[in-house]
Design a protein that fits this description.
This protein is 26% helix and 22% strand. It is α+β, with helices and mostly antiparallel strands. Helix 3 links the parallel strand 4 and strand 5.
Length: 205
Amino acid sequence: MSVLSALPFLKPVHLRSPRSSPGGQRRHTLPASEFRCLSPEDAVSVFEIEREAFISVSGDCPLHLDEIRHFLNLCPELSLGWFEEGRLVAFIIGSLWDQERLQQEALTLHKPRGTAVHIHVLAVHRTFRQQGKGSILMWRYLQYLRCLPCARRALLMCEDFLVPFYQKCGFEALGPCQVTVGGMAFVEMQHSVRGHAFMRRNSGC
């Protein structure tokens, strides 16, 4: 059984009923809203959203196109995309890490035996911002991680101005991050992911 088939909250979520033709027969339409793991085929759409979201603010992207493809080939199960009528509107990309704190190598490595999920990037398409989609997507992602037997913690690094956003999502600040990018400094944040067996008993996973 695939991971997705075992996780009902990652199956397509229809927010409105399928349209019907005048004769009463249902048309084949794309789901109004769908959450699913990303695939390498989604890499270009992911990069377009990320580039617009980050370059205007920091001048660079957390992940470049080849790095996006790299992680979506290695660990697509640690990604999550939000699609509206087939169009990607927001996404998260993560990988596994096996140390207590993030290090420079965490930017490019996926450690299959790790128990910490390093969230590399969360981005929302510009026309869908200020609608709470980032918070909703993060909530769904954390729920998903609770059903993965490998995941114990979620880690991320962010700039100071984003700390309040992630605190509202349930993350706690661990202090300055050891990782730097182009001279930029970051705060490292953590969210505990409870044990797989406990959450399976209490969340229906």
